[in-house]
């Protein structure tokens, strides 16, 4: 599992573009997917904090915090820009930050209110993806265009199902982050 800073050192351009989409409205803004106790996905709006130290999120006492405490798998998706359908996505594992000096540094940067019952989580990065679409806002390939430009980074130290032969069949078509990827025939 790579930290945000390790990912950014490996792919600085991609990390910068993902950071720009996550912070396009000032403070970070995106959608956090967590795994419920029954295995299903849960989605929440959040304000991620991206620093040179890492990718963090302050999480109030809530179902999403209990999800992260029980099962740290997450996916984070950017809020869509007004002028395009560009998107950024990162996924990995969340872990609570216990170093109080680090918590204080990130709280200052993220302007987290000290009197609120939040817990700081650091998000590792197993997968990072950036999709750029035609500036006309088309959701798919437009006649005469090459379609969306997609950049994907996979943590080179992680074992990714996409890199193993027959992984989808062996894992019952369940994606790396626990979500069922099967589609109906209809």
How many helices?
5
What value does the Rg take, in angstroms?
Answer: 17 Å
The coarse silhouette is globular
State the end-to-end CA separation: 37 Å
DSSP strand content: 25-35%
The profile of the biggest β sheet is:
9 strands, antiparallel
Strand pairing plus helix content: what structural class?
alpha+beta
Unreliable stretches, pLDDT < 50, 5 or more residues? 137-142, 163-186
Characterization of this structure:
The chain is of the alpha+beta class. It contains five helices and nine strands; from the N terminus they run ααββββαββαβββα. It has helices spanning 4-10, 12-22, 63-70, 100-110, 167-170; strands at 30-35, 41-46, 49-50, 55-60, 73-78, 87-96, 118-123, 127-132, 149-154. Helix 1 crosses helix 2. The longest helix has 11 residues, at 12-22. The radius of gyration is 17 Å and the shape is globular.
Question: What is this structure, in a nutshell?
Answer:
The protein has helices at residues 4-10, 12-22, 63-70, 100-110, 167-170; strands at 30-35, 41-46, 49-50, 55-60, 73-78, 87-96, 118-123, 127-132, 149-154. With 186 residues, it is α+β, with helices and mostly antiparallel strands. Strands 1, 2, 3, 4, 5, 6, 7, 8 and 9 form a nine-stranded antiparallel beta sheet that branches.
Give the key terms:
single chain; 186 residues; alpha+beta; nine-stranded antiparallel beta sheet; globular
Helix-strand blueprint:
Blueprint (H helix, E strand, L loop, with lengths): L3 H7 L1 H11 L7 E6 L5 E6 L2 E2 L4 E6 L2 H8 L2 E6 L8 E10 L3 H11 L7 E6 L3 E6 L16 E6 L12 H4 L16
Helix pairs in contact: 1-2
């Amino acid at each position: 599992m790579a930290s945000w800073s390790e990912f950014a050192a490996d792919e600085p351009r991609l990390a910068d573009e993902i950071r720009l989409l996550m912070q396009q409205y000032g403070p970070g803004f995106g959608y956090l997917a967590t795994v419920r106790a029954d295995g299903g996905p849960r989605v929440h709006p959040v304000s991620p904090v991206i620093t040179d130290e890492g990718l963090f999120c302050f999480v109030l006492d809530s179902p999403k915090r209990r999800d992260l405490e029980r099962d740290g798998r997450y996916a984070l998706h950017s809020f869509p820009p007004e002028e395009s359908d560009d998107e950024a996505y990162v996924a990995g594992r969340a872990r609570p930050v216990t170093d109080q000096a680090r918590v204080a540094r990130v709280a200052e940067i993220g302007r987290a209110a000290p009197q609120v019952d939040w817990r700081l989580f650091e998000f590792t990065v197993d997968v990072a993806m950036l999709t750029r679409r035609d500036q006309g806002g088309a959701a798919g390939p437009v006649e005469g265009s090459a379609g969306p430009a997609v950049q994907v980074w996979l943590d080179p130290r992680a074992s990714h199902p996409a890199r193993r032969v027959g992984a989808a069949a062996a894992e019952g078509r369940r994606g790396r982050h626990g979500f069922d990827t099967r589609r109906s025939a209809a």
